[in-house]
């Protein structure tokens, strides 16, 4: 049996907060309440255990320890009280997987129709893994993929299958 291309691990106790707002006018308030600078388009910014991901021109995803979600939602709502904004705990509706190892990029390239190779270290992409909507960000040790928890088992299977090393076909 061939060696796996990467290690696939489900990330436990991860909290996620969706933030929708006018990022130009609310960016400073979001950064102060989230404890992380607002990232540029297509990137993430991190500070310790917190990562703020750019999802669209008016949407961010704050990833943080699950134990800090409630207090952070409260801080964000207070900071954005004068803005037209949405702050929502989406921790229970998402599953996250770490893809680590020297060939982690190859695993994602098998599944995703996006240029994974050109992502910078703090890069963020919204794409698909096979037919499933997902978000991917690059980290120093590999990638994190998030998707809906309702298809988490399917995502795990896709990632595990793509991580399997090459196999030799037997001639007929």
Structure description:
The protein is an alpha+beta fold and 172 residues long. The protein has two domains: 14-92, Heterotetrameric sarcosine oxidase (Alpha-Beta Plaits, 2-Layer Sandwich), CATH 3.30.70; 93-163, 2-Layer Sandwich (Gyrase A, domain 2). The chain has helices spanning 23-34, 69-79, 104-111, 152-163, and strands at 7-10, 14-20, 44-47, 50-56, 59-65, 86-89, 94-100, 124-129, 132-139, 142-148. The strands form two sheets. The chain has a five-stranded antiparallel β-sheet with strand order 1-7-10-9-8, with helices on one face. Strand 3 and strand 4 (50-56) form a beta hairpin. Helix 1 runs antiparallel to helix 2. The two termini are 20 Å apart. InterPro entries: SoxG (IPR007375), TrmE/GcvT-like (IPR027266).
């Amino acid at each position: 049996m061939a060696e796996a291309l990467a290690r696939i691990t489900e990330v436990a106790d991860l909290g996620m907060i969706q933030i929708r707002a006018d990022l130009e006018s609310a960016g400073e308030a979001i950064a102060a309440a989230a404890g992380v600078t607002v990232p540029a388009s297509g990137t993430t910014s991190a500070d310790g255990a917190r990562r703020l991901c750019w999802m669209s021109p008016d949407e961010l995803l704050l990833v943080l320890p699950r134990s800090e979600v409630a207090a952070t939602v409260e801080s964000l709502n207070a900071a954005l009280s004068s803005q037209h904004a949405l702050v929502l705990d989406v921790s229970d509706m998402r599953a996250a997987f770490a893809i680590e190892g020297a060939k982690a990029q190859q695993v994602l390239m098998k599944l995703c129709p996006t240029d994974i190779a050109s992502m910078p270290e703090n890069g963020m992409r919204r794409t698909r893994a096979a037919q499933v909507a997902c978000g991917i960000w690059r980290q120093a040790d590999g990638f994190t993929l998030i998707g809906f928890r309702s298809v988490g088992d399917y995502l795990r299977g896709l990632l595990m299958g793509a991580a399997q090393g090459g196999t030799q076909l037997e001639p007929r």
